[in-house]
């Protein structure tokens, strides 16, 4: 929840960006635009304002409430597959080592080492904690006597979004809650 003191600073007034179907463009990282970008998009008529902060900005001729939730007027089709990045790899593996389940000192590991012909692909790279990565060294998991809990796969963007919903940010403005589906139990 936003602390009342934070609302005084314009930097703490980002706008949650929804696609034209009113779903967030991204859950992790959460799709947020700085207030300046949101206002510019309003004036260019690229977004509809769904909710406002209590905060206003002023020009010489007008006062404008800062948008807290905006929806794009044109639907942005998400890519089917996400970029292969360290962050997305950690997100795919839910920020856990595939060997021991630890969430500390995370690195990435080539399941089939490059020295054995392993490639740097979604299907061969996994999240590993530093101790497990060091223990495994340049060997296969079998050679090192280790078990891979989750075989590495190439995730879809939807799978990463779904994993991202499990890691909500620390600060959520109240006006965002209706548009974010953080594993909340629904009424029967």
Q: Counting H and I runs of at least 4 residues, what is the number of helices? A: 5
Q: What helical percentage do the residues reach?
A: 10-25%
Low-pLDDT runs? 1-7
Sequence of strands across the biggest β-sheet: 2-1-4-3
Classify the secondary structure makeup into a structural class: alpha+beta
The overall pLDDT average reads 87
| Total number of strands | 6
- Give the biggest beta sheet: 4 strands, mixed
Shape: elongated
Order of helices and strands: EEHEEHEEHHH
Sheet-strand content, in percent, reads 15-25%
Domains counted in the coordinates: how many?
Answer: 2
Q: What distance separates the N and C termini? A: 26 Å
Radius of gyration: 21 Å
Concise structural overview:
Helices cover 19% and strands 20% of the residues.
Highlighted features:
disordered N terminus; two-stranded antiparallel sheet; 6 strands; four-stranded mixed β-sheet; DNA Binding (I), subunit A; 188 residues; alpha+beta; 2 domains
């Amino acid at each position: 929840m936003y602390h009342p003191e934070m609302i005084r600073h314009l930097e703490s007034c980002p706008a949650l960006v929804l696609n034209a179907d009113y779903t967030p463009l991204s859950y992790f990282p959460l799709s947020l635009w700085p207030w300046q970008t949101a206002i510019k998009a309003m004036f260019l008529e690229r977004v509809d304002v769904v909710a406002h902060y209590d905060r206003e900005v002023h020009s010489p001729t007008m006062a404008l409430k800062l948008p807290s939730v905006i929806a794009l007027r044109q639907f942005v089709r998400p890519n089917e597959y996400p970029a292969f990045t360290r962050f997305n790899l950690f997100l795919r593996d839910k920020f856990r080592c595939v060997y021991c389940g630890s969430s500390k000192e995370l690195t990435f590991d080539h399941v089939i080492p490059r020295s054995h012909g392993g490639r740097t692909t979604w299907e061969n790279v996994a999240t590993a904690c530093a101790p497990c990565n060091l223990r495994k060294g340049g060997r296969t998991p079998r050679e090192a006597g280790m078990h891979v809990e989750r075989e590495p796969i190439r995730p879809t963007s939807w799978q990463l979004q779904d994993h991202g919903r499990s890691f909500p940010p620390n600060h959520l403005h109240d006006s965002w809650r209706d548009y974010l589906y953080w594993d909340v139990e629904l009424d029967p």
